[in-house]
Every structure is written in structure tokens, then in C-alpha cells.
């Protein structure tokens, strides 16, 4: 069984007890530190991609995720080749026009970020010693 499938099974088995909080990707916070609250509501694994769905319709795709910790105190995926966070602009209708993303690909030289955020320039700062994905 692929590690991604094992991670998905662990997440789904413990959905109501998994750590809830603010997302961070290789040290890059989604929003301000500890300003957002996210809760995983389901998880699937297909074609090497782990897909986590959250309580406000957000999705997190993780390619080649390894070394996960899933518990009441921690939700962390230590390594990944790519991470994509998608969310609808909060407070607006959930339409294609209000769907935003931050997409991070691990390269030899670091993290290559892409986004369609158009109301500010995200301060993409990464620390490769930190987990690819974590909820704090």
C-alpha cells in the first residue's frame, strides 16, 4: 500500500479528533499566524495525490507526501514534492471567480510558488527544515 493511502486512512479514521487550526506550508503561513481555523472533514488518495477537504470547502492537494503525524495535537506531513491549497474568497459566494490557490512545488533550489491571489502580494518565505504541511 502506498504511503499516501495509509495517510488518507489514518486521517479518515480520526477525523473528529484531528488537530484544527492555522495552515503553514514549509513555514509559509496561510493568512496571519494563528488567524485562521481549518478543520479536515475528509481525505482521499488517488494517483499519488492526497486530497484533504476542509470545513469551508477548501482543498489541500499533496503530491508524494511522506512521514505524516496525525493526532489530536498534530497534523503534519514532513515532505512533499508539491502542495496546492485552494479556497473560496471568504464571505463571497463559492463560484469559479472566487476560487483562489497557492501552489508550491519543491525544486532543487527551494520552493517555487504560484498563486492567482490578486488583492495583495503574498510574502512567500519558506524554511525547508519545516514540514511541507502542518496545522498549528
The pLDDT mean sits at 93
Question: Helix amount, in percent?
Answer: under 10%
Structural class: mainly beta
Please tally the helical runs, counting DSSP H or I stretches of 4 or more residues: 1
Identify the overall geometry: globular
Distance between the termini: 29 Å
Radius of gyration: 14 Å
The tally of strands reads: 11
Q: How can the largest sheet be summarized?
A: 6 strands, antiparallel
| Biggest sheet, spatial arrangement of strands | 3-4-5-8-9-10
Strand content: 35-45%
Tally of separate domains: 1
Order of helices and strands: HEEEEEEEEEEE
Low-confidence stretches: none
Folded structure, characterized:
The chain has 136 residues and is mostly beta strands. It has one domain. It is 8% helix and 43% strand. The protein contains one helix and eleven strands. Strand 1 and strand 2 form a beta hairpin. The chain is globular and about 40 Å long. The N and C termini lie far apart (29 Å).
In brief:
Helices cover 8% and strands 43% of the residues. The protein is built from 1 helix and 11 strands. The N and C termini lie far apart (29 Å).
Key words describing this protein structure:
136 residues, six-stranded antiparallel beta sheet, five-stranded antiparallel beta sheet, globular
Give the SSE map.
Layout: H1 3-13, E1 23-25, E2 28-29, E3 40-46, E4 49-54, E5 59-63, E6 66-70, E7 75-79, E8 82-88, E9 99-107, E10 110-115, E11 133-135
Amino acid at each position: 500500500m502506498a504511503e499516501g493511502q495509509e495517510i488518507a486512512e489514518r486521517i479518515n479514521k480520526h477525523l473528529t479528533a484531528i488537530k484544527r487550526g492555522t495552515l503553514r506550508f514549509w513555514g509559509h503561513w496561510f493568512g496571519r499566524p494563528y488567524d485562521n481555523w481549518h478543520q479536515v472533514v475528509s481525505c482521499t488518495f488517488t494517483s499519488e495525490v492526497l486530497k484533504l477537504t476542509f470545513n469551508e470547502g477548501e482543498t489541500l492537494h499533496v503530491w508524494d507526501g511522506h512521514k505524516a503525524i496525525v493526532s489530536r495535537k498534530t497534523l503534519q506531513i514532513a515532505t512533499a514534492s508539491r502542495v496546492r491549497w485552494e479556497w473560496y474568497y471568504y464571505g463571497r459566494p463559492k463560484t469559479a471567480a472566487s476560487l483562489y490557490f497557492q501552489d508550491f512545488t519543491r525544486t532543487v533550489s527551494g520552493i517555487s510558488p504560484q498563486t492567482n491571489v490578486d488583492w495583495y502580494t503574498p510574502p512567500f518565505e519558506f524554511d525547508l527544515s519545516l514540514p511541507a504541511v502542518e496545522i498549528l
